[in-house]
Design goal:
55% of the residues lie in helices and 1% in strands. The chain has helices at residues 2-26, 30-46, 68-77, 106-121, 129-142, 150-163, 167-170, 180-192, 201-216, 220-236, 248-272, 313-321, 324-330, 338-353, 372-387, 396-422, 426-429, 433-437, 443-459, 462-475, 480-502, 514-520, 550-553, 585-598, 616-627, 642-651, and strands at residues 296-297, 300-301. Strands 1-2 form a two-stranded antiparallel sheet. A hairpin with a 2-residue loop joins strand 1 and strand 2 (300-301). The longest helix is centred in the middle third of the chain and has 27 residues, at 396-422. Mean pLDDT is 76; it is low at 29-57, 168-177, 543-578 and 602-652. It comes from Plenodomus tracheiphilus IPT5. Residues 597-652 are annotated as: Disordered. This is Xylanolytic transcriptional activator regulatory domain-containing protein. Keywords: Nucleus.
């Protein structure tokens, strides 16, 4: 037992030293920090002494005694001119009894709070839970919200809204009524608006939680607006600036809130291809502590020396997202050169080195599903960076390299999923795979798996694709966007199977198939700036869903091998989103296994769509159907296209 305690103490010391190192790095501008890293690498190779770049110097300010009257005068005469630090916030008017929402039952809150702690709080620890729980207990003692401030009411229902994201898995079915989370979301929104003149931390906390709920519910624009509100409120409160005259509890609360907003801003900027809201130089506040809430109190920070090193999942995500600023800057280019990719690869390796040994790609140590979002933070950034060169603007060699790099990331993802499934701790192994996956379900995880599955299927890495699909199918309809990912995957693999049967040789060089690359590039086509399929499309009108995707993606004068490529059949756009929840993961798995089986080398086997030459009648009858694009969803009967008539004539 003594050796175990020694190891735990060493782990705790390593975690603290890592945090101190990260805090020192945050005091450097981004450019200086990169210079330090590169200079240090050169020193290690050359043996030369390291030259540390100068940091921002902030001299401590002396304390002024007997200056209270001066502060009072400045505060009194600064009204309507400028805001002062430590401003006493005015009390807001209480809501009338008719406006006060009904308090949920205590049992409902218990279930929801458990879901919040399991799925949200670990990655966004913006609430000091003992304090929040104490305030909730007071409210339930009074059995009413009438005397509660509007911003606290908004925070309370924002917590319930985020907790309801996991209702299907974490909560009893009697609570799983349609729109329960949306009801909480609306109550919180009404409680917070109209905005007051003076903000509190509760306003920023509520705005961040509402942005998380909206984004995870696939209300992307609304989530973006709430995130922007959280950023601006935090800046109004100046929580991004280090302040000395604060209690340990308040200081830690400000740090955790700011860095949670920061990491969310960076993640959403990368996922949505939108500009980041926070400037990198505006992050002077030190990184938050990795301690659990119970060790942080207003009197100070307390922790038992014998306690094991706490989980640093959220802190690790913050440290990783700090390199997103450079990635976002690089992604502004239409094509990324090889040297820039190598520079970012060095950053990825440095970030990965900060994580525990079990997080490393080549490790065989125990790896739990709860660690997947952390490593996905790096893998997602790598995938976005490498995918940029899949564009048709890139040279064929660059496109082939980009595809290879994306496949490498996708295969690494599959390895992590496999380790989480098979090589986990005994305690986690006692849980079902569904229970282990539920707390990590998020839009970011769903989208990353979706991109990986498309690329893996395109390249023919079907075993790895099935492993990623196993995690996606387990997440199921926990996230609305995951069903949309599944529909798109079904469309893609159906088309791949159809393409493989008709043109077997085409699948050997997928980087030359412009249409397949357009589909496999996934949400890269959602950017006006960097997509390539919309070039020449009419921006003033929506693209008709009846048009074949080939009519958009195929270009004259580029990739001439595309002239005889057939359009893929089927489209998930024809499905009615109001129908019963989509659940065809099993069919996708079956199709991928068909692709796997039919892609194996055959010995002198004739493709199924070729018919014997002695039966020309049937050949004429079957040829048009094979080449026809998918039928429109409208009731009108389509007429054969000119391409179809020409193909019939050629066959005759």
């Amino acid at each position: 037992m003594s050796s175990i305690k020694q190891v735990q103490d060493l782990q705790s010391q390593i975690a603290e030293l890592t945090q101190v190192n990260s805090q020192l790095r945050t005091k450097l501008p981004e450019k200086d920090a990169l210079d330090v890293e590169r200079t240090d690498m050169k020193r290690r190779h050359s043996g030369a002494p390291v030259a540390i770049a100068p940091a921002l110097h902030r001299a401590p300010k002396p304390r002024l005694n007997n200056f209270a009257h001066v502060r009072n005068n400045i505060q009194r005469h600064a009204e309507d001119l400028f805001d002062i630090p430590y401003k006493v916030r005015s009390k807001h008017a209480r809501q009338s009894s008719s406006q006060v929402p009904e308090l949920p039952s205590r049992a409902d809150f218990a279930h929801l709070s458990r879901a919040y702690l399991d799925c949200i709080h670990g990655w966004h620890p913006i609430l000091h839970w003992p304090t929040f729980q104490s305030e909730v207990d007071e409210v339930y003692t009074k059995r009413t919200l009438e005397r509660s401030p509007p911003e606290w009411i908004g925070l309370f229902f924002a917590v319930l809204a985020c907790a309801s994201l996991q209702l299907d898995i974490q909560i009893d079915h009697h609570l799983n009524t349609p729109g329960r989370g949306l009801v909480y979301f609306d109550i919180a929104s009404k409680a917070l608006t109209p905005w007051p003149e003076d903000f509190t931390l509760s306003h920023a906390q509520s705005a961040l939680l509402l942005s998380i709920y909206a984004a995870e519910s696939n209300m992307k624009s609304l989530g973006s607006i709430w995130l922007a509100s959280a950023v601006r409120i935090a800046q109004e409160l100046q929580i991004h600036v280090a302040v000395d005259a604060l209690s340990p509890l308040e200081d830690e609360a400000r740090r955790r809130l700011w860095w949670a907003i920061y990491s969310r801003d960076r993640t959403m900027a990368l996922e949505t291809n939108k500009p980041a809201l926070i400037h990198e130089l505006d992050c002077e506040i030190p990184l938050p502590s990795a301690l659990e809430d119970r060790y942080i109190q207003s009197q100070g920070v307390f922790r038992s020396q014998a306690s094991p090193a706490p989980s640093t999942g959220s802190l690790a995500v913050i440290q990783i997202t700090r390199m997103y600023a450079g990635i976002l800057q690089t992604l502004r280019s239409s094509v990324i050169h090889h040297q820039a990719l190598q520079n970012h690869d060095e950053q990825f390796r440095s970030s990965m080195a900060l994580l525990p040994e079990s997080y490393q790609p080549g490790s065989n140590a125990i790896f739990e599903a709860a660690a997947l979002p952390t490593v996905f933070t790096i893998l997602t950034a790598r995938f976005h960076l490498y995918r940029r060169n899949l564009t048709i603007i890139s040279h064929p060699a660059e496109r082939a390299e980009a595809l290879d790099r994306c496949v490498t990331v996708a295969k690494d993802t599959a390895k992590y999923v496999s380790r989480a499934l098979h090589n986990t701790s005994r305690l986690e192994a006692a849980k079902s795979w569904h229970a282990r996956v539920a707390p990590i379900a998020s839009n970011t995880v769903c989208l990353h798996l979706w991109r990986c599955i498309l690329i893996l299927c395109l390249r023919g890495e079907y075993d790895a694709a099935l492993m990623c699909l196993h995690l996606s199918s387990t997440i199921g309809h926990t996230r609305k966007i995951n069903s949309a990912c599944g529909k798109h995957i079904a469309f893609f693999v159906d088309g791949l199977l159809d393409r493989q049967r008709k043109i077997p040789d085409q699948s050997q060089r997928p980087e030359h198939d412009e249409e397949l690359l357009a589909y496999a590039s996934a949400d890269a086509q959602g950017s006006i700036e960097h997509s390539w399929v919309w070039t020449g499309a009419n921006a003033s009108s929506k693209t008709s869903p009846q048009l074949s995707p080939c009519s958009i993606t195929r270009r004259q004068g580029h990739d001439e091998t595309m002239h005889d490529v057939l359009p893929l059949r089927g489209s998930f756009n024809s499905l009615d989103p109001k129908e019963t929840p989509w659940n065809e993961w099993g069919r996708i798995e079956s199709t991928i296994r068909q692709l796997m089986e039919e892609s194996r080398p055959r010995t002198a086997q004739t493709p199924t769509y070729y018919l014997p030459p002695h039966n020309p009648v049937k050949r004429v009858q079957l040829a048009p159907d094979d080449r026809l694009p998918p039928k429109p969803s409208t009731s009108s009967t389509p007429t054969p296209s000119s391409a179809s008539r020409i193909s019939i004539a050629n066959i005759i």
